[in-house]
Design a protein that fits this description.
The chain is α/β, with parallel strands linked by helices. The chain is 63% helix and 10% strand. The protein contains 19 helices and six strands.
Length: 389
């Protein structure tokens, strides 16, 4: 069994929310600005990739309070009317002219370049008023085109941090930051993750390089079943805070729920390097080995998960089921009895314990578990009755 809810996330969300406010860095002055994003040049990569990167980048910037993004169609129309070449390598002076025509304060020029298996995203921020390049940005995808979305989101976060100073601003914006936190927690505590998410996302735009905030957003996505979004947000969390063990764990969990055990394992290994007693990381790694039929290693990891956290029931369930499958019913009973003592109303524990009791020849013990199961989960009790016959 794989738990859908994240106990780590709930604990951190409950205890570290105040930290988000307390540790908000020194604010920067707020100023409205308009940005034009030119389609990125693709060099050695798919022709559509540069256009996709600029679309993702523009979408990420749109939700930021300080930024208005010029519509691509408007930029294209101006380029056609003025016969401006905005494809290929665009000179800074051309960007300045186009920016002025569409009323932009800044103009973004960028490229996606392939170097073997690496894709490097580079961007220049041109000040339309002065004609100067204010800042250059760079992000790398080590997973080829599969990692481009994450690299682009990180590129956007770098730009947002540059525009905003990387922190909530004083006065009304700071009040807004707390308003979003209040609303986000309100919906989150009601279990309405869908309505909670927009508020968390707005907070990340006020504080774009906050690893804890990205982690919480990733966890909310995870609980909402949006595992791809959860993966991206968790990867951003470890980008800004590489020592965040629970964020690496969440990367592994997201990969696991997407059915990719192999990609999950390195993230789980990193989480365990940072915190060797993360029960959920040990459990998920054990599940990955179990799925690959590397059963001895799976047993060791599941036992380690129980030793790390004796109350972590999913590890008992997984280990008990594995022992039943390999014919070690006596050992399975020894694992499942403590789980039953901790959670006597857990129907899955009762079901597996009944199976283990039956397989070791204790028919009476199996029937006792089935009688209790009737009141907990009648459909599961019926299934058990069929198996015991």
């Amino acid at each position: 069994m794989i738990p859908r809810g994240g106990r780590v996330l709930k604990a951190l969300a409950a205890t570290l929310v105040a930290l988000l406010l307390f540790l908000a860095p020194a604010p920067a002055a707020e100023a409205a600005l308009t940005v034009a994003v030119n389609p990125f040049l693709s060099q050695g990569s798919s022709l559509f990739l540069g256009s996709s990167v600029s679309e993702i980048l523009g979408t990420e910037l749109i939700g930021t309070r300080e930024v208005t993004v010029v519509e691509r169609s408007q930029l294209g129309a101006v380029a056609n009317q003025q016969k401006l070449a905005l494809s290929g390598v665009v000179p800074t002076e051309t960007a300045v002219k186009a920016g002025r025509l569409v009323g932009a304060r800044y103009f973004v020029l960028g490229a996606v370049s392939r170097f073997g298996s690496l894709l490097v995203l580079t961007a220049r921020l041109v000040d339309v008023e002065s004609g100067a390049v204010l800042k250059s940005f760079e992000q790398t995808s080590r997973d080829g085109e599969q990692g481009v979305t994450l690299a682009t989101k990180n590129l956007a976060a770098e730009m947002i941090a540059f525009f905003s100073g990387g922190a909530p601003t004083e006065g009304a914006p700071m009040d807004d930051y707390r308003y979003y936190l209040y609303e986000a927690l309100g919906y989150y505590n009601l279990g309405d993750y869908r309505r909670s998410l927009p508020h968390w996302e707005r907070m990340t735009r006020l504080n774009p390089k906050d690893g804890l905030l990205r982690f919480i957003v990733a966890g909310v996505y995870y609980q909402a079943g949006r595992y791809n979004d959860s993966l991206l947000a968790a990867q951003q969390a470890v980008t800004w805070d590489p020592s965040f063990a629970e964020a690496h764990l969440l990367v592994g969990k997201a990969y696991f729920m997407m059915g990719d055990d192999h990609k999950a394992t390195p993230a789980l290994d990193r989480a365990l390097e940072l915190n060797p007693r993360l029960a959920e990381a040990l459990f998920l790694k054990g599940q990955a080995f179990k799925n690959r039929r590397r059963l001895d290693e799976a047993v060791d990891l599941l036992v380690a998960a129980i030793e790390a956290d004796g109350s972590y029931i999913p590890a008992y369930l997984s280990l008990g089921q594995l022992l039943i499958e390999v014919g070690a019913a006596e050992d399975a009973v020894g694992v499942l009895l403590p789980a039953r003592d901790q959670e006597p109303e857990n129907a899955q524990v009762r079901f597996l314990l009944a199976m283990a009791q039956y397989l070791r020849g204790n028919r009476k013990g199996a029937e006792e578990e089935r009688e209790v199961l009737k009141g907990l989960d009648p459909s599961l009790a019926e299934k058990l009755a069929e198996l015991l016959q």
